[in-house]
Amino acid sequence: MESDQLKVAILGAKGYPYVYGGYDTMVRELGERLQKRGVQVTVYCHSALFKEKPSIVNGIHLVYLPAIEKKSLTQLTHSFLSMVHACFSDVDVIFVVNSGNGPFGVISRLFRKPTAINVDGLEWLRPKWKGFGSKYFKWSSRMATRWYDRIINDSDEMRRVYLEEFQTDSTVIAYGANPSKGADVSLLKKWSLAPESYFLIVGRLVPDNNADLIISGFLKSNSQRRLVVVGDVPFQDAYAEGLKNLKDPRLLFTGYVTDPEELKSLYHHCFAYFHGHEYGGTNPAMLKAMGYGCAILALDTPFNQEMLQQGKHGWYFEKNLESVAELVARAEQSVEEMQHLRETARLGLTQRYNWDYVTEQYLQVFLELKQDKC
């Protein structure tokens, strides 16, 4: 080895410091912390998303590569080119995010480059991947277990799923959180909102986040509060348009809220936060709700049960309108219990959700992979 410095390449997200989704946030949080620990970090970026293309930002090396700019091909073609490029580089370990990149592990195996992949949630069950898409994600997840040296899941429940579905064990490293004790209440004026005058949903307007269920259940209730829906989809979509066209004075669709302080204020001052995400491990929106002190009302799934410690840090609803409407009524009749959930929400952010701890766990994996190669 020419140098003892660990060199890690990260690919599969949009790039750095681009922040749009959960993977992009993880790349930023993890990459910056690894760099400060003396690791040489290289992040692969979608060139079309960056007007300026500096080679180094905050000590992180950046490589910009093109992709076939089609909805279903952009990410895969970019990851393919990134993997090939990384295999020809001098990095010690390649870290890939997204189970859709499962087949590309065969490339790194041919080049004998140690690899780890974070496979995220149950992509093959998500309603948006019907037919071929669903089959591809199931196949690619299986390929990931075959070709990558280390599989990483972000929850114990996802580890169980991979053991059951693919007979493969994985390392569990949760997603990190950035808790905050306060938020500027004046930022709510932008939407003419007052503290605790609204319920909140945050997430992409896609079927597996169940915004339609929550909205319909809420409208079925007698609540006089508003339901604020933060999020959208970056393309024309009948499902999202159908929701946004619903007419009721209690509904407020903000679209994307890109200012982190505005988003924090919406979380921090809501009466309760609705979480309808169905097919994932550790969910970033849920972590924000916990870190910003929300009373959480979540769809009853094994993943949400794990995050909320079986009801210690939130209440649950079933996947039907009546259950949502009943939970709205119960919450509004239980002001003291809602306040208690707000006051104790951050206690649910145990050490496993601390970004520094998360980074240490990833660093251990990368060092083990480098050592195995030697």
TrEMBL record:
Presence of keyword Flavoprotein: no
Pfam family membership, one: Glyco_transf_4
Single annotated GO MF: glycosyltransferase activity
Domain Glycosyl transferase family: 196-346
Keyword Transferase on entry: yes
Domain Glycosyltransferase subfamily 4-like N-terminal: 20-179
Keywords, sorted A to Z: Transferase
PANTHER family, per the entry: SULFOQUINOVOSYL TRANSFERASE SQD2
Record-given protein name: Glycosyl transferase
UniProt organism field: Mongoliitalea lutea
